[in-house]
Amino acid sequence: MSEQVHNRLAVVRAERKVSRQALADALGVHYQTIGYIERGQYNPSLDLALKAARYFGLPVEALFSLEPFQPLTEEVYGVNGRKK
Asked: What is the largest CA-CA distance in the chain?
């Protein structure tokens, strides 16, 4: 079994107000595939991960990682709650 790929797809999609269906259509996959990826039930292919990154205009490592992402509040405000 392959290693889990962590992602921020749901967060970015919600932030950009993009539906699962709209993203799926743009990437050429079924909308359920987007849900499976977001829930960590399916690891995207490299091709699909790169297409998603291009769609959002982000580097692929901003969306996908082999390590769990820190909560965004920690990244923005730091562990102690003060803005960086």
From this structure: 42
User: What pTM, to 2 d.p., does this model score?
Assistant: 0.82
- Amino acid identity of residue 46, one-letter, is L
**How far is 5 from 26, CA to CA, in rounded Å?**
21
Query: Hunting for tokens 């399916």 — which residue is that?
Result: 42
Residue-wise pLDDT tens digits, 3-50: 899 999 999 999 999 999 999 999 999 999 999 999 999 999 999 999
Q: What is the pLDDT of residues 52-62, one digit of tens each?
A: 999 999 999 99
Please report which helix (H) or strand (E) contains residue 14, including its range: helix 9-15
Residues 6+ apart with CB under 8 A from 13: 19, 20, 23, 34, 38
For 24, residues 6+ apart whose C-beta sits below 8 A from its C-beta are 30, 31, 33, 34
